[in-house]
Amino acid sequence: MALKILHFTPDVEAGSPFAQHVDMLLYKMSQYADTHLVTLSPLSSGPTTNIPTYSLDDSERRRSRKRVTYLPALQRRFLTLLYAIKPDVVHIHGSWNYMCSRIALWSRKRGFHVVLSPYYSLEVKEEQADYGMKMWQMIAYQKHMLRHASAIQVTDPVSYRILTEKNLNARTILSEGFDPQSEDSYDQMATDLMWLYRKLLDSHVQQHLDVNSEEALSALLHVGLARETSQQILSPESILNLRSIKPTSWRYIDLFAYDHGIMEVLQQGVVRMQLRRPDFHPEEVDRFAPTLQRDTTPLPSDILLSEDRKMRRRLNALTTRDDAAVRKICVMVLNIKHHYKKQTLSLRHLCDLYDVMRHEDYDEDVFYEAATSLGILSLTRRLCQLLYETAYLEEGFMPVYRLDDKETEEMRQYLIRY
Fold first, then answer.
1. For 335-352, what is each residue's pLDDT tens digit?
2. Which of 191, 214, 200 is nearest to 87 (CA)?
3. Per-residue pLDDT for 133 more than 50?
4. How many CB atoms within 10 Å of residue 384?
5. In angstroms, rounded to a whole number, what is the distance separating the alpha carbons of residues 250 and 256?
6. What is the pLDDT of residues 275-311, one digit of tens each?
7. What is the 3-state secondary structure (H, E, C) of the chain?
8. Which whole-number Å values give the CA distances from 175 to 24, 99, 102, 152, 227, in the listed order?
């Protein structure tokens, strides 16, 4: 399935070198991806004639000097196009331009990936005639746009050095040796950009799992964690959904499972359901470094990770009167709380908790008293809600009734919001 890329260019003069550059680049890009172009002013007629082109009609700004009067209308027109096209990536061409920063902000806030190609040098020198203007632009919007772009592609070494040395954006690639007079250079740049788009999408798999993929992942976790295999443990609808997953969706499911350390559980579910999926190795995929370093090691059930002495004393007081399974669940919930506070929580930890809740015998009344004394009753209820959604944990195996509140939604957004 071809990627869908939405390109944006600010005001450009028809026939200018920049317009000709964008024309040629988009013509080459259209051979690899479903390419769309949004402009503030139409480009020159050329190789982009077969590419869907949309103009935001900037005539209102040309008639009025008050930018505030036209920005809301411009935003509405752009968002209408954005949701109609639903691109995988929004690629902005240009820098030192206020409208580029607005398009980047509007796209990013709606969950779309933004790639930026500045083209012009990002260096600001005091001896430059426009030094004062560039400093104002850098402070007002340029630095924010560079820092929050999903990835940046530059063609000059100076801009690449500025972005890397000043830590403005680590996800920057340099298209070295680019020659605007060479068609081969445009072929190479188009190839580099396709590699960048794919790397970007593979680094944010949670945003690309659709509803069917979410349900398939939950069903496979439920089957993979089950110890009884002789009975039907999935509904016919879930089985039908599993057998209709597309290869692209399998790719994102595998990458998501790899990030959360649940590949073994997923593979066990695939084997038990006798599914055929593409041969894929997530560890070999070229990706950006994750923003969250999730811990994918087994969740300890006998050692408390927190160094809170007061909590340790409370926990040790339970061992004399409570059974081993209750203590095990309490320790695991406390360790999940520790990982969540450290921003290292993964689905692997919830799967380990699921296994104990689902397959070990314990007194629910004793656990209720223990969880209350440790102050983890509400957290346990929230975890039961998440396990109910992600691994189909039945209510009969929950030690307490599940809770779905604001804090549960925060955990869901952090952990399992696909």
1. 999 999 999 999 999 999
2. 200
3. yes
4. 24
5. 10
6. 888 888 999 999 988 877 899 999 999 888 888 888 8
7. CCCEEEEEECCCCCCCHHHHHHHHHHHHHCCCCEEEEEECCCCCCCHHHHCCEEECCCHHHHHCCCHHHHHHHHHHHHHHHHHHHCCCEEEEECCCCHHHHHHHHHHHHCCCEEEEECCCCCCCCCCCCCHHHHHHHHHHHHHHHHHHCCEEEECCHHHHHHHHHCCCCCCEEECCCCCCCCHHHHHHHHHHHHHHHHHHHHCCHHHHCCHHHHHHHHHHHHHHHCCCCCCCCCCHHHHHHHCCCCHHHHHHHHHHHHHCCCHHHHHHHHHHHCCCCCCCCHHHCCCCCCCCCCCCCCCCCCCCCCCCHHHHHHHHHHCCCCCHHHHHHHHHHHHHHHHHHCCCCCHHHHHHHHHHHHHCCCCHHHHHHHHHHHCCHHHHHHHHHHHHHHCCCCHHHCCCCCCCCHHHHHHHHHHCCC
8. 16, 25, 25, 11, 52
Taking alpha carbons only, the member of 127, 117, 284, 114 closest to residue 190 is: 117
- The pTM of this model reads 0.83
Distance of CA 410 to the CA centre of its chain: 16
Give residue-wise pLDDT tens across range 358-402: 998 888 998 999 999 899 999 999 999 999 999 999 998 999 999
Query: In which residue are the tokens 């104990």 written?
Result: 356
CA distance 333 to 331: 6
Chain segment 73-107, per-residue pLDDT in tens: 888 889 999 999 999 999 999 877 888 888 999 99
d(CA 92, CA 156): 17
Separation between Cα atoms, residue 247 and residue 280, nearest integer Å? 10
pLDDT at 126: 40
Q: What band does 123 get if pLDDT is binned at 50, 70 and 90? A: low
Residue type, 350: L
Q: Which tokens go with 79?
A: 């968002």
For residue 83, the one-letter residue type is Y
The one-letter amino acid code at 329 reads I
Residue 258 has pLDDT above 50, yes or no: yes
State the average pLDDT for the chain: 84
Tokens of 117: 């190609």
* Amino acid in the structure at residue 354: Y
State how far the alpha carbon of 404 is from the alpha carbons of 10, 369, 382, in Å: 45, 21, 6
Residue 122 has pLDDT above 80, yes or no: no
